[in-house]
């Protein structure tokens, strides 16, 4: 549709796959190539079988870049830690519907504290589960892999879920953004945009290469 084709796609490199010994250089590289968000995957070893970083690291990274910091919390009981991530410099905080009992309360809390509030759903969670909270979301994050690791294969059913989320959001909260995360690269980026995605997270497809910025430019030109 015309409205979708003129929308600017948001590219959100996930530094989960980056080389942290060269993190300043790697962030600068994707920033120079036109990334708008920096996707920060927070894992607790409980919600997902992997552990990454907490607010201290994000606070330090904040000094390196003016990009929008897009935190993806893969932690149980995210309500216990959102203030720490907010004060560390996260502009957007997305947590998992499966990780908290009171998702609606937390969405409202985030918004009332000046943070863009996002809700993520795992591959087995239907889009219909978002029906009663969609007005409270600034972002819906559709997982296209099971969260926990970079470099996994894209789950094709996510495309249909993006279409479903698009229909729900167009009807009920058109300002809400649809973000897709996992296994995204040159082979599926265009399809996801056409299905209605606003923001594409990319880890391995960028940082799996020596020059992630060059890779981002290449993918952007391929899907233009
Ligand atoms: C997975 C993370 C993703 C991950 C994506 O749990 O949420 O953000 O970094 O990495 P790729 O793009 O390599 O699948
Ligand atoms: Zn993520």
What would your notes on this structure say?
An eight-stranded parallel beta sheet has the order 1-8-7-6-5-4-3-2. It is globular, with a radius of gyration of 16 Å. It is built from nine helices and eight strands. It has a single domain, classed as TIM Barrel (Alpha-Beta Barrel), CATH 3.20.20.70. The relative contact order is 0.17. It has 224 residues and is α/β, with parallel strands linked by helices. Helix content is 35%, strand content 19%. Bound molecules: D-xylitol-5-phosphate and zinc ion. D-xylitol-5-phosphate (DX5) binds next to strand 2, strand 8 and helix 8.
In short:
The chain has 224 residues and is of the alpha/beta class. The chain has helices at residues 2-5, 23-32, 55-62, 82-88, 103-112, 157-172, 189-195, 204-207, 212-223, and strands spanning 10-13, 37-43, 68-74, 92-96, 116-121, 139-143, 177-181, 199-202.
Assign a percent range to the helix content: 25-40%
Low-confidence stretches: none
- Hetero groups: D-xylitol-5-phosphate, zinc ion
CATH class: Alpha Beta
**CATH homologous superfamily title:** Aldolase class I
Helix and strand run: HEHEHEHEHEEHEHEHH
Work out the number of β strands: 8
Total domain units: 1
What structural class should be given to the helix and strand makeup? alpha/beta
Shape: globular
**Gyration radius over CA:** 16 Å
Please list the strands of the largest sheet in the order they lie side by side. Answer: 1-8-7-6-5-4-3-2
CATH architecture label: Alpha-Beta Barrel
* CATH T-level fold name: TIM Barrel
Topology at a glance:
Blueprint: H1 2-5, E1 10-13, H2 23-32, E2 37-43, H3 55-62, E3 68-74, H4 82-88, E4 92-96, H5 103-112, E5 116-121, E6 139-143, H6 157-172, E7 177-181, H7 189-195, E8 199-202, H8 204-207, H9 212-223
Parallel strand pairs: 1-8, 2-3, 3-4, 4-5, 5-6, 6-7, 7-8
Helix pairs in contact: 2-9, 3-4
The structure holds D-xylitol-5-phosphate and zinc ion (ZN).
